[in-house]
Amino acid sequence: MPKILPVFLPFAYCGNKCIFCDQQAISGVQAENDLLLHAENQINQWKTYSNNYDEIAFYGGNFCAINKDIRLSLYKKAYNNGIKKIRFSTRPDTINSDTLKEIKDYNIYLVELGIQSLDDEVLKANGRPYTSYEAVKAVEQLLKVTKCGVQLMTSMYKQNMYSSIDDAAFFSKMDITTARIYPTQVLKNTHLNKLYEQGEYIPSRLEDILVTAAGMYIHFTAENIKVIRMGLPHEADDSGDITAGAGHKSFGDIVITLIMLLYMDMGGKVKFSGYKAAAKELFPENINSDNIMKQDMMQDICKNIRSKYLEDSKWFIKGQAAFYADKLKNKANN
Ligand code: SF4
To answer: Is the CB of 11 under 6 A from ligand 1?
Structure first.
């Protein structure tokens, strides 16, 4: 695993107001006017823990919309600190010939795109300023100059569960490197919270979000795309700003557990390091504690599950996965 130094720049040059977003609440980092100083302070802070980072990651806001001089200074700061790889996240609408050239010239290692959905109605209803066509185009163009990751959401306003799984299936066939899966949670200071209070937005149940995220994870992992995050950062839970939306501090572990239950349901045997109680109860014979779970084993497991259960995402969310998600939702803490 590469050691990554994270620099969070909330709302930096975002210029937008997506209805679900409150980056300060989810990151625990306050927005600052002086981005360079803000980045430097965070870099210095992380360097007190270690002097040896493989990569630096600039997250939050809309990186490619930041003033170019500042972006170049941030690259220089990273390279001057001996960090060899740079990754950042940005919105698809900021990918153009200028930013692509810069990404190539400065040897940016990986760019994550906050895509969230490929449903144009969902994008519009949530205040995302681009279309699905533009988002896919941005991925295609990025892949010509560097590695690309995508960030997708579930349970957005006006989004249905199977469309999130279909989005993951679509991107799993592109040559991307990483994916993040974020279930929508309602944050206090957002328009989504107003829609929730008015009864316009009804958050999905935990079991439904688990099934959706499992379907997405299976598609990505079956194609060897690393899912590097499932669920909001812990800071969001700790902030007290979440008013609704099913989430869990161990969301990713529960999703993996659900996938393992599906695999064991097919007769598979696995080392089980997640929610043992639920797995042992349901499949006591299928847990082989001598094995070590590696990424390629996980890829095989996901390929098997995909071919058995995931040909149709509408069927998947109602079938065996839903059965196990229902069992898991009450055992999420043991
Ligand atoms: S999600 Fe990104 S683009 Fe949307 S308001 Fe938040 S920072 Fe801006």
So the answer is: yes
Say yes or no: 295 and 191 in one domain: no
Task: Going residue by residue through the chain, which has 334 residues, state the pLDDT in tens, using 9 for 90 and above.
Answer: 779 999 988 767 788 889 999 866 655 555 556 888 888 899 989 989 988 899 999 988 789 999 899 999 999 988 988 898 999 999 999 999 999 999 999 999 999 999 999 999 999 999 999 999 999 999 999 999 999 999 999 999 999 999 999 999 999 999 999 999 999 999 998 999 999 999 999 999 999 999 999 999 999 999 999 999 998 776 666 667 889 888 787 889 889 989 999 999 998 888 766 666 777 788 888 877 655 555 668 999 999 999 999 988 888 888 889 999 988 887 765 5
In a domain, 70, yes or no: yes
Among the candidates 256, 279, 301, a domain finishes at 256
Atom of ligand 1 nearest to the CA of 128: 4
Query: How far is it, in rounded angstroms, from Cα 19 to Cα 3?
Result: 33
Residue nearest (by alpha carbon) to ligand 1 atom 1: 21
Ligand 1 proximity of 218 Cβ (cutoff 6 Å): no
98 and 150 belong to one structural domain: yes
CA of 305 to the centre of ligand 1 (A): 34
Q: Look at ligand 1, atom 8, and give the residue with the nearest C-alpha.
A: 14
Residue 303 alpha carbon to ligand 1 centre in Å: 34
Going by alpha carbons, the residue nearest to atom 7 of ligand 1 is 61
Residues 209 and 182 in one domain: yes
User: What range defines the domain where residue 36 resides?
Assistant: 4-256
Number of neighbours of residue 181 by Cβ within 10 angstroms: 27
Ligand 1 atom with minimal separation from the 21 CA: 6
Tell me if 17 CB under 6 Å of ligand 1: yes
Measured from the Cα of 23, ligand 1's closest atom is 6
* Rounded Cα–Cα distance for residues 220 and 226 (Å): 7
**Structural domains counted in the chain:** 2
Q: Which residue has the tokens 């097919």?
A: 266
Tokens representing 152 are: 């997708």
268 and 218 belong to one structural domain: no
Tell me whether residue 334 is in a domain.
no
pTM for the model: 0.92
- What Cα–Cα distance (Å) separates residue 319 from each residue in 123, 167, 204, 314, 316? 28, 19, 17, 9, 5
**Is 262 found in the same domain as 238?**
no
Polymer length of the chain: 334
Which of 228, 256, 284 is where one domain is finished? Answer: 256
- 165 and 216 assigned to the same domain: yes
